[in-house]
Amino acid sequence: MIKIRHFFFILLNLVVVQVYSQNLVSADLLRSRPSTQVHNILEYYGLNTAGLTIPAVNSYKITYSTTDVHGNATIATGAVFIPQMASCNALPLLSWQHGTEYDKTNVASQDNGDAILGFIFSSHGYVVVMPDYLGMGDNEGIHPYHHWLSEATASIDLIKACREFITNLSGLNDNNQLFLAGYSQGGHATMALHKYIQENNLYDEFNVVASAPMSGAYDLSGAQYDLIFNANSSYYRAEFLPYILGGYQEVYGTIYNSYNQLYKTPYDSLIGEYLSKNYTWAEWAAMVPENYSEFMQDSVLENMQADSLRIIHPINWALRLNNLYNWVPERPVDMLYCGMDSMVSAQNSLNTLDSMVALGATKINATEIDPNGVHETCFFPSIGYALNWFDSLAEFCQVVANSPEINSADKFTVYPNPAKNNLFIDCSVGLEVTLFSLDGRVAIKTTQYCGNPLNISDLTPGVYVILALDPVRNKNYQSLFIKN
Fold first, then answer.
1. Which residues contact 273 (CB under 8 A, 6 or more apart)?
2. What are the b/e assignments for 272-300, b being 16+ CB within 10 Å?
3. Tens of pLDDT along 307-328?
4. What is the pLDDT of residue 318?
5. 335: closest CA among 483, 448, 190, 127?
6. Are 194 and 218 in contact, with CB atoms under 8 Å apart?
């Protein structure tokens, strides 16, 4: 993989100046898919390609700075997907929040998990960002599952880092249109991100055009609680319980003092091991009985349900703190759900709709995608619905004016980017060109160069700065280039 660490601009006098970035730490090229591959992906998943000009798409692993659940600085990872549209330098941005995942490596930054959706969304002309969340990807520790604040901050800091990256890489910008979407846990995280932006008065910086939370547990202490803690103590995804309680213990420190206080033997030691190491969802499901009364202490279940208002018991209190129905969206929100969902109750969306409307919301909607659909079958129909909605609102392929120092007569571009063997420099006049590595060393120098292929096959893979001098006009230009 190609590393980009701490972008540098190299000025004409060869003074190397570090570009200080608030969030971006590094970027790694993961995959370059040509338009034919992206087209095949869309067709494989049954998505409509009629009338769609499908670009090539590059994906990158982004490492960035954010904060952990205690407000301390930490490093997290995510991914960005960039459509390769040469005639455009400003595109809408779409943030996708992924669903429940146990395996830390099954995420977009590792070219796994929902990464395929990045290519699907980018094929429509969006720059797509995908946070791994805390405790996933390269971030250490227990994942704070369904903790609304860290879902929001991990997502928003990735957006900031991706903006730094795409601007420094090629001058590409987002067009100040931001779309939010996510499924299951990602539905909860999407609602959390939108709420965080609004409550912190960040619409000027993060102009949310629309958000589509899908099949999310927005009413954790109500609708979702009623679904899980039923009369027969059975829930077919019972492994969610130790996962969410482990996360809330990490955040609040009030759920239990020891695993045995919450779980019966041998599940106390098993759950402790599974939380501290990296097990897959299938391994969790095989370890945890479907009937949670077999692994949870009877006294805990009794005390939870004796708390009729669900505000006193530490578990009920933590769930209530992460409900997301108690705010009034100022930008359009459409909650997508399916009627027969037995993993995340459809009542989550309906209760949230009722609550927000009662508070005065007018830009909230809940759309039933399929009255007979379940959690597993609702996924792609919801994505298709959301993408059609976003496409109707997005402004695609804007051309932004060049910087003042380079007018249309002095155009200076390099292609392809990234490239492996030959690099072309598109310019209107002869230029003296020098390629520098990021540590300031001269890699290639040529004079009076314009329009002919430049052999870069011997360069070490990495990022290079290109400086160009127009000796006639006495003007200087620069760009960044990735060598595969």
1. none
2. bebbeeebeeeebeebbeeebeebbbeeb
3. 999 999 999 999 999 999 999 9
4. 98
5. 190
6. no
Give 409: exposed, middle or buried? Use CB within 10 Å, 0-12, 13-18, 19+.
exposed
Give residue-wise pLDDT tens across range 69-120.
999 999 999 999 999 887 677 899 999 999 999 999 999 999 999 999 999 9
Instruction: Enter the DSSP assignment of 110.
Output: G
The whole-number pLDDT of residue 231 equals: 85
Judge contact between 483 and 459, C-beta under 8 A: yes
Chain segment 407-422, per-residue pLDDT in tens = 333 445 677 777 788 8
**DSSP per position, 387-410:** HHHHHHH----B-PPPPTTS-GGG
**Of residues 46 and 208, more confidently modeled:** 208
- Within 8 A by CB and 6+ apart from 161, the residues are 21, 23, 24, 25, 62, 64, 65, 78
> For the chain, what is the radius of gyration of the CA atoms?
25
Helix ranges restricted to H, 362-454:
379-393
DSSP E strand stretches across 21-55: 24-33
Of residues 347 and 423, more confidence is placed in 347
